[in-house]
Write a structure and sequence with these properties.
Layout (H helix, E strand, L loop, with lengths): L12 E5 L6 E2 L2 E2 L3 H5 L1 H9 L3 E5 L9 H5 L3 H11 L3 E4 L5 H8 L6 E4 L17 H8 L4 E4 L10 H7 L4 E3 L1 H11 L8 E5 L8 H7 L5 E4 L3 H8 L14 H10 L4 E2 L3 E5 L8 E5 L8 E5 L1 H11 L4 E5 L12 H12 L4 E3 L3 H5 L9 E2 L3 H8 L5 H4 L3
Parallel strand pairs: 1-4, 1-7, 4-6, 5-6, 7-8, 9-10, 9-15, 10-11, 15-16, 16-17
Antiparallel strand pairs: 2-3, 12-13, 12-14
Helix pairs in contact: 6-7, 10-11, 12-13
Length: 388
């Protein structure tokens, strides 16, 4: 698999697949970390006097109403500011206007193509890896750099499609992600996995792949209640993934000393910040209560397990992080890992957002949620396989 440094790029038209799928609220970018992570690859190509054509998706496009709110125009402005350089934005994914703009590029100029998922409006051409579309985008450049780790687990026209047609390599961000995650193939022990999030079924592959490698798997988030119910506890109105009860039973039976579950819970009667809450033992949850975070006793126990850890991988918050009352356990465990300089890999998504204040102190915060999960499951990633 080629890296960006293996290619002769001088003066060439370089297509770069970036991941500019950033959160936007009220017309403003809330977190531009993914844009910043792309700068190293873009600047490298600028130093090589390339003509740069950037592609990315943003959000999902299911109907015409989704087009305007998912335009990459806002990203072009932010990227221009970060690079201190004009970024030409073309509000098209194909056609004469785009082709002329690409043809007019001078060395050292940057063009951003409109959201690749605009092509999903008519037959999901991007998401289904339409061969004609992949070939068309490939025709715009001389070489292709895939630097979008967040979509590396998907076979789309803008990654697999392009790479199937022209010389291709990975960019610096993808290389950084793979280098960091590769340490999990033979992790330094004790190796501890921390899993949160809502549903067990989203993590079944991860648990199956890591349970034999890990010394312990600490369970939190909504998925804890499926494990607890499988053990016979009454979890009230807490979220339960009923289809995964048997799987939880099987894992606890096979690995009783590896799966660690909460002993106390922060409960309330409604999914709200305003409703009164209290800490309860897992044996005391009432039928009208729901758990929205693990409790202080559990945090204390989890810290003891983590104390001597040499490697930690963490996916999913331990509580309902979007509600301020239920951030506490996630923040406490994050701080503990940072304060004790424990090598920690955060598996993308919500847990990375929760750790934004520790960005420089965490060993690795992945930019890919689904991609990281599938890597942890041991699956082959189409965006990488095509480059081999």
């Amino acid at each position: 698999m080629k890296k960006i440094t293996d290619l002769k790029l001088d003066g060439k038209k370089v297509l770069i697949r970036c991941d500019f799928n950033v959160p936007i609220k009220n017309g403003k970018i809330v977190d531009d970390n993914r844009i910043k992570e792309s700068l190293k690859t873009i600047n490298y190509c600028l130093d090589k006097h390339c003509k740069i054509i950037l592609l990315s998706h943003l959000g999902r496009i299911k109907e015409k109403a989704d087009l305007e709110k998912n335009s990459l125009a806002i990203v072009a402005k932010r990227l221009s500011k970060l690079l201190n350089k004009e970024v030409i934005f073309v509000d098209q994914t194909r056609g004469e206007k785009l082709e002329k703009a690409v043809e007019a590029l001078s060395e050292g100029e940057i063009l951003l193509v409109q959201n690749t998922r605009y092509e999903d409006l008519d037959g999901k051409k991007e998401s289904s890896n339409n061969k004609e579309l992949g070939k068309y985008w490939a025709s715009l450049g001389d070489v292709f750099i895939n630097d979008a780790f967040g979509t590396i687990h998907r076979a789309h026209a803008s990654n697999v499609g392009i790479a199937s047609n022209i010389e291709s390599a990975i960019g610096f961000l993808v290389e950084k992600e793979l280098n960091a995650l590769s340490c999990l193939n033979s992790p330094e022990k004790p190796f501890i996995v921390v899993l949160g999030g809502a549903k067990v079924k989203d993590k079944i592959g991860v648990i199956k792949n890591l349970i034999t490698k890990a010394d312990y798997i600490l369970i939190g988030g909504g998925m804890a209640f499926t494990f607890l119910q499988s053990e016979g506890y009454d979890v009230g109105n807490s979220i339960v993934d009923h289809d995964s009860i048997d799987f939880c039973n099987e894992m606890i039976s096979k690995y009783p000393n590896k799966i660690v579950l909460p002993v106390d819970i922060n409960v309330t009667s409604e999914y709200s910040n305003e409703t009164p809450n209290q800490i309860k033992d897992i044996t005391e949850i009432s039928s009208d209560e729901m758990g929205l975070d693990i409790g202080p006793k559990t945090v204390k126990i989890y810290k003891k397990y983590l104390k001597n850890a040499k490697t930690v991988v963490w996916n999913g918050p331990l509580g309902v992080y979007e509600l301020s009352k239920y951030k506490k356990s996630t923040k406490q465990i994050l701080k503990y890992l940072v304060d004790n300089h424990i090598k920690t890999i955060l598996g993308g998504g919500d847990i990375v957002a929760a750790a934004k204040n520790y960005k420089d102190e965490i060993y690795h915060a992945s930019t890919g949620g689904g991609a990281t999960l599938e890597y942890l499951e041991g699956k082959k990633l189409p965006g990488l396989e095509v480059l081999k």
